[in-house]
Amino acid sequence: MPRPPAVPADKIVDAEVCARAGSTIARRFSAAELPRLREAGGQDGSWIEAEFQFSEFDGKPAVAGELQGTVVLTCQRCMRPVDIALDDTFQVILVDAERSDEPGGYEPVVVKASRLDLAWLAEEQALLALPLVPMHESEDCGAEMAAGEIASTEEREDDAEDAEDAAGATTHQPFQNLRDLLRKQ
């Protein structure tokens, strides 16, 4: 069975000890340190700053956190890089087994509290904060297209209109007689 990847000691904390002490920890992570973010399309230049405020709730370690940063993704409109700004907060409670009825409005996270990987938690929250479909603002995206791309797009549209006109003469309408058939019954 393969071992989990080695994680530097400064990214692993004992959340139970931190919760009892009421600690606050701040870390900065680059794209190279966040493999799941890279798998989701995060490119070089992406970074996340996270602040973790530990406390105890109902005898369990809880974390209130803030994320700021920039994730460089591919715009799904123009297929060029787009910077997505992250500014998010989260509240999680660390549990041994998943339950849906955690009190206090905390999102349960199943993890061994004595070995909490801060990079993993920041990456998890960043993935949840990302947009489903990353895109430039509409005016920015159009300005990003090169003049040649716009010209070729217009040519393709003209060709499509010509093809529609030619096909319009022989359009088949399969449900044209459906109303007559229903009336006969």
TrEMBL record:
Record's GO cellular component terms: cytosol
Pfam families, per the entry: YceD
The keyword Glycoprotein is assigned to this record: no
Keyword line: Ribosome biogenesis
GO aspect biological process, one term: ribosome biogenesis
Region (Disordered): 145-185
Sequence ranges of Acidic residues compositional bias: 155-165
Family membership: Belongs to the DUF177 domain family.
Function according to Swiss-Prot or TrEMBL: Plays a role in synthesis, processing and/or stability of 23S rRNA.
PANTHER family, sorted: LARGE RIBOSOMAL RNA SUBUNIT ACCUMULATION PROTEIN YCED (PTHR38099:SF1)
Name the record gives this protein: Large ribosomal RNA subunit accumulation protein YceD
The organism of origin for this protein: Steroidobacter agaridevorans
